[in-house]
Amino acid sequence: MSFNIRDHIAWVGKIDWELRKFHGEEYSTHRGTTYNSYLVQDEKTVLIDTVWEPFSREFLENLRRRIDLKKIDLIVANHAEIDHSGGLADLLREIPDTPIYCTANGLKSFKGLFHQDWNFKPVKTGEKVSIGSRDLVFIEAPMLHWPDSMFCYLTGDNILFSNDAFGQHYASELMYNDLVDRTELYQECIKYYANILTPFSKLVDRKIKEVVAMNVPVDMICTSHGVIWRDDPLQIVNQYAQWADDYQENQISLLYDSMWQGTRKMAEAIAGGIHAADGDVTIKLFNTARSDKNDVITEVFKSKAILVGSPTINKGILSSIAGILEEIRGLGFKRKKAAAFGAYGWSGESVKMIVQKLEEAGFDIVGEGIREMWNPDEPALERCTRFGRELAGKL
Ligand code: FEO
Fold it and tell me: Which residues on adjacent β-strands are paired with residue 309?
């Protein structure tokens, strides 16, 4: 499959309908993904990015249906991660001396990943290359989301090729933001931002301001995953600006795991207390052992506060809670509050341990948390409800 975006620009990527896990097993892709590659034909012919390695051969055959590979004058490699560079090795066996425009960090990443001395042309922000009646202008975007990440802008057509930024893991034959289901698209965009870009929000904010200050028209944003933004393309830039500003909604999420239902009952009683005190706040409960962790992280991203609960086991906490807390720590959420809860039988360390981990993750801890012994009875659950009620005013 390939299709024209303009007469002289084609999408030549791969729609991966089957993918359910990305980054190894780290990121769930309920709706598959796409690896977007673009072929721009002016006096010179440019290939922008490739596809993930398992689709490399298919990618080349597809490309060959469009063009004699020897006619490709240059390659732009906006990002070295192998979901975009996986087609390079096969391609460069056919056209070995073709220049590859990338950042200086890209060069290091490519050498580390492929161990090849390809014809790299490192570029910096503002450098451009003429391809005939148009220029390609390069914009480094370090840590969005790798040190090597880069955008490039095509003059004349006013297209920003943004690579991962503004993308989403979303397979669709429709391929344009105005054609796909908007709710699905929004869900995949916010999940992508929450799980991948949260740690780099300050850089996202700075980069958006830098690109806006360039004061160039943007008619399309061609990302490397998911749809092409052609209807009001700046809507996703504005949305990113909001997400980068320590985003939160009026939501409180309770994340817990439970062995014999005690901590689950506590979670529900606490949630009842919060609701009784504040009927407007959205409250969501997740058993982290039974929920998709990336979906839970997306809900944490949307929350103004989280409550985390685990029973005590082996003087510690259950593994699903330990796992999600490590994920949360790494993402570096800002301006969010938190509290802890949990049932226990004898030693009862879990609540203290969760509080410590939430503090380390940068959350503003509200109170010491609540723990209840053995199977919480009616008075214990009433204490939990009261805990929730009192907490609601502080969150
Ligand atoms: Fe889609 Fe960072 O690769």
Answer: 256, 341
Query: What is the rounded distance in angstroms from the CA atom of residue 185 to the CA atom of residue 168?
Result: 8
84 lines ligand 1 (CB under 6 A): yes
188 pocket-lining for ligand 1 (C-beta < 6 Å): no
Alpha carbon 298 to its chain's center: 9
Per-residue exposure over 366-377, b if at least 16 CB sit within 10 Å of its own CB, e if not: beebbbbeeebe
Cβ neighbours of residue 8 under 8 Å, at least 6 residues apart? 40, 41, 42
Tens digits of residue pLDDT in 290-343: 999 999 999 999 999 999 999 999 999 999 999 999 999 999 999 999 999 999
Local confidence band at 192 (pLDDT 50, 70, 90 cut-offs): very high
* The pair of three-digit structure tokens given for residue 344, joined into one six-digit string: 């226990």
Look at residue 204 in the predicted model and tell me its pLDDT.
Answer: 96
pLDDT tens-digit readout, 109-144: 999 999 999 999 999 999 999 999 999 999 999 999
Q: Which of these, 59, 57, 55, lies nearest to 47 by C-alpha position?
A: 59
Q: Would the CB of 81 count as within 6 Å of ligand 1?
A: yes
Rg of the chain over Cα atoms, rounded to whole angstroms, equals: 24
Active-site residue identified among 192, 247, 256, 344: 192
Active site residue 225: yes
Q: Which atom of ligand 1 is nearest to the CA of 224?
A: 1
Taking the chain, what is the end-to-end CA distance rounded to the nearest angstrom? 50
CB 234 within 8 A of CB 217: no
Residue 368 is a catalytic residue: no
Among the atoms of ligand 1, which is closest to the Cα of residue 149?
A: 2
Ligand 1 centroid, distance to 83 Cα (angstroms): 6
Give yes or no: 79 in active site.
yes
| pLDDT above 90 coverage of the chain, percent | 99
> In this predicted structure, what is the pLDDT of residue 370?
98
**Centre of ligand 1 from the C-alpha of residue 191, in Å:** 14
Give me 137's structure tokens: 């202008």
Catalytic residue among 225, 247, 256, 268: 225
pLDDT value of position 140: 97
Percent of the chain exceeding pLDDT 70 equals 100
Residue 16 Cβ inside 6 Å of ligand 1? The answer reads no
